[in-house]
What does this fold into?
Amino acid sequence: MKAVEIKPDIYWVGAIDWAIRDFHGYITQNGTTYNNYLIKDRDITLLDTVKHDFHHITIDNIKDVVDPSEIVNVVINHIEPDHVSSIESIMSLCPKATIYISERGKKGLDRYFDTSQWKFKVVKNGEMLNTGKYNLLFLETPMLHWPDSMVTYVKEAKLLISQDAFGQHIATTSRFDDEFIACASQFELEDAVIDYYANILVPFGQLIKNKIAEIVKLGLEIDMIAPDHGVIWRKNPEKIIQTYLDLAGGKCNLSVSIIYDTMWHSTEQMTAPIMQGIKDEGVDCKVIKLRATPMSVAVKEFWKARGCLIGTPTINNVMFPSVAEFLYHLGGLRPKNRIAGAFGSFGWGGGGVKEVYEMLKKMGLEVFEPGMQVQYKPSREDKEKCYDFGREFAKKVKEYHSENNK
Ligand code: FEO
It folds into this structure.
């Protein structure tokens, strides 16, 4: 897709990756985009690059607007390879350009590339760069998403170029939120935001709240937010900021996700009465089988719901491997403000459900005990107990939700 002017003399010059389905283990069923931006000012300035496989696309887009040899400044907001791995190709076209980057960004770039021939200006939080009619303010956002990360605010354009923050993994020809909603749907966009947040940003909720508070304190006027993935927020940028504050603050749906796996369908047969009990208590419920669902989708569904029940059979006195993998991954995301419990079947010694509870407690989640276990296969009586278990869990979820959805 050719360059798009998003503000006077400021262009999107990125690339659409329609084919990617595995983004370092995160399943991107809708592809993604690598967004970077070009300011055609007295001092021509490029902000970020794209994934290396797409370097020729961004270079063609840049050439549609300026002669790349005239680029004076290259701002690197984030050094993860999806944004920086075209830097050698870019710098070969404008070898005299100065790279503006955070201190930790410079150290990381030195590890990825031979930077010895490039000029650098290491910038700190609050430093500015004048390009002519535009002033660029650099704000460091460490750990959002990596230690090096920063965002760039273009003052006269009221434009926040936000790297990973506020992004979504969607491959689309729509460059703006309103265009996307017109041709797809509000739900699809919101789901993509939650998917991205749940799989990438959950560990950094407090940092997100602090950084947004800092931006508010600075009194920056923002009428457009341009992330490095997905659509640009021009219709209502306040809404995506509020969405991030809500997600970081623990807001979610009054609903339950049942996330399970099964060997001989016994644990699976427990899910239907449990789901019915939850539903009859007036709480929405979604059932997710782990081996039928990408990990990143299961993580998203966990994050969307206030409550989660983990179902596992016992194998060799421990939980089922796919359940262990899910919980191990979830633990790394350090989720908060969620209540969880466990259920499952066993043959003789048991151990799977106990192990799930150990992991849930280690994560610091609110835990609903005792769990529900059946031997070999759920009988009619067991299924009635499963129904009651679901119903009791839903009652707890409602209580916990009313205390935590503020
Ligand atoms: Fe899109 Fe942290 O990279």
In short: Residues 78, 80, 82-83, 145-146, 164, 228-229 surround MU-OXO-diiron (CB under 6 Å). The first strand starts at residue 4 and ends at 7. The radius of gyration is 24 Å. The chain is about 40% helix and 25% strand.
